[in-house]
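Reopening: histidine kinase still failing for me.
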Amino acid sequence: MSGTAPLPTGPLASLTARLLLAFLVPALGFFALMGGGGYALARAILEEELGQSLSAIAAATASQVSGERMLTIEPGDDVQGTRTWRNLTRLLGEVQQASGVRRVYAVDTQGRVRGDAGGGLPVGTEVPELARDRRELARVLAGERTASQVLFTGSDGRPYKTGYAPVWQAGQVVGVVGVEGSAAFFVLLAGLSRAFTVASGAALAVLAVVAVLTARGLARPLRRLMDSALRIGRGDLTTPVPPEPTREIGVLARELEVMRQALESRDRQLKLMLAGVAHEVRNPIGGIELFSGLLAEDVRAGSLAEAGGHVTRIQREVAYLQRIVEDFLAFAREQPLARAPVEAPALLSDACELLAVEAEAKGVRLKVDAAPVRLEADGSLLTAALVNLVKNAVQAAPPGSQVQLTGRSEGERYAIHVQDGGPGVPAPEQERIFEPFFTTREKGTGLGLPLARKIIRAHGGELSLTSSPGHTVFTVTLPLGRPPAASSGAEQSRPPSEV
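Support: Ran it again with your exact input. Result attached.
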């Protein structure tokens, strides 16, 4: 047998690696999308909600602040504790306490503190955080309320956000109220994200274990199939392919075993045929060698009469050798069927006519009794198969006896019986009668009956034998074709014929 192709190699050559990729890559993408995307979306929504809440508190506070009085607060008022400063600080402190925010302060348009609850900055000091939120501050000074876009970390290590709202006086923005609130829930959100990451890692680990176990479960039977296929490829046709419990792989194993059995049978048949050919060819070659030597001696001695006899014997051996080669080729080659409608009575009659001379020479009558049925078959090949059966029956029948050919419909099949009254086939030989090159005749090749069975099986039929002394029957069963045409009525009423 030819060598097998090299197996694929590389990091993705194994089933385990491919299943790991198939399991883990989509799962990793899913967890990354759900975890990272979910965290970012939740953070953005919560941050936006916090900004709106803080700016709303700032707006509500700014609506209670008198811009005119706020602008009268000057540096040092917090030290002196002026009434205006105390009122503003008390208002900002009440808002701080009621809303639970970290800090509430009021500044003028220059960013200088006029009141600060929770921050502790003195009046007149610039608030450092306003430099970070210039863009938001510009919007507030234009009359909008807004919140800082960037979270900042306080001295306690927590994230904070600031909401801003304008302070109005006579239709003019004269100051800004800022409210700083803690985004403590972001810490919880970060913890949730870490927990999700740990859970995702655990899920990926479980998926990896499942992928490895699944791959091993699939790889073991597939590896057994691979080993069986490699054994067959190396020429080991005797080791059976073990069955597999999994349905799909079991089908592959069963079909591989059927293929192995077919190859083993064909290999055994080929070896048997080669041995048979060698055995059959040896005898005529030995005869040719013997008679050619005698012929050479007679030619040298001038005995032309005896030389002619040797030539005849040589020609006979050559003819037998040629028949062996023809039978061997006919049995070995795969002949495609050329199916066409064939009338069963005509098929049996043609086979008998081809052996009429041989039967008459032995004093054997051939009788045909066939029910009219149309078969879909290769007429020439099927005739050749029947000729082998009839010839075998004629050779076995005693002189003066009869070989009977009958054809009858039996259900959905057509049965052809070839019966003779010869001595029969002994029971031990009946089991080997269809083996190639098995013969009990001195000049038989042993390929006639195996070739007949091969042709009949190619037609979807079967050939069997029942034999006892005085009664031997070869039975051919073939699938039925279409019923005969109405125009063949005369043939239907035709009585049994003898050849």
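The CA atoms of residues 86 and 326 lie 128 Å apart. If you still see a failure, please send the error message rather than a screenshot.
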